[in-house]
Amino acid sequence: MTTATVAQPLSGRDAYRAELTGLAATDDRILCLEADLGGKGHPFQLAHPDRFFNLGIAEGAMVDMAAGLAAGGHKPFVSTFAPFAALRAAESLKLTLGYLNAGVTVVAPYAGVSGAWFGTTHHCLEDLAVLRAVPGVTIAAPYGEAEMRAVIREAARSGKPYYIRTGRNARYASLAGADQLPLVNWESEDGDVCLVSVGEEGTRLAVEAREQRPGTAHAHLVHVDHEHLARAAPELARRHRKFVVVEEHRTQGGAAEALALLLPRCEVTSVAADRSWPSYGGDHAQVMAALGLELPAVLKALHHATQNPTATPSQPRSLSCTS
């Protein structure tokens, strides 16, 4: 008797590489640019060597080059670690994705503190704040292989500027329906308090919190730019008045802060990284815990929201934080 082997999902960055490689087989306009991250055995390089470019440690130049390629009718996808994309190459992103509105997709692994023991130079808790301030950029933070693949397909079809953040090596199975990229993906609509999850670790924590508190609603958001959040806010408000937003980012400039402005009659609590700088080593979970981003913090925020009086339309509420 043989036992069937269940394939493990790919990590976010491996799912990106696999999906882009497949899309490029039928669209010769797709190009792949990497900043010294390709390594041996990159699937796109193996399948399409004439359309793969390793630009070395020159992130700004890579984005600038992608702008020119997009102007020439190509569909460039560029990838480098999130801190080097969103922070080191910030000016190039502003001009390429914003001012020029070039059809360039930036895929940024190592978002949040997934770089862990690599330290602060390889952490990025500020990228959403930077990119959300650039008009016209679609920002996505997919959870799991299926959702990442769907976002890559969407970006390739659109021809518009995209910034896609993901982690390092974590592997997750996407939520049901993720491949359709709904504006709000409801894992559950029932409950007095609604968890709102963003990104890989925010969604993982929300799923784990629901396992311990089954009577909790959970809405997952894959797109977190202003335009998408402004469209999602009415759907959230029609169903709930209390929200706990979980994201691997600073509260400042993140999705929770944006939703608090878009949902002024609702109670919005942020479970996110605090304002400290973890300067010591540790794995991903340990660094997140040092920043206050762990399951007990989510459960505490849910308990607090449950105990508070329900917000009413006549009571404007403000953003609160767990840290």
UniProtKB/TrEMBL annotation:
Q: Which UniProt keywords apply?
A: Thiamine pyrophosphate
Pfam families under this entry?
Transket_pyr
Q: Name one GO molecular function term.
A: magnesium ion binding
- Please list the cofactors this protein needs: thiamine diphosphate
* Chain ranges passing through the membrane: none
Q: Which residues form the Transketolase-like pyrimidine-binding domain?
A: 10-174
The record's similarity note reads: Belongs to the transketolase family.
This chain's protein is named Transketolase
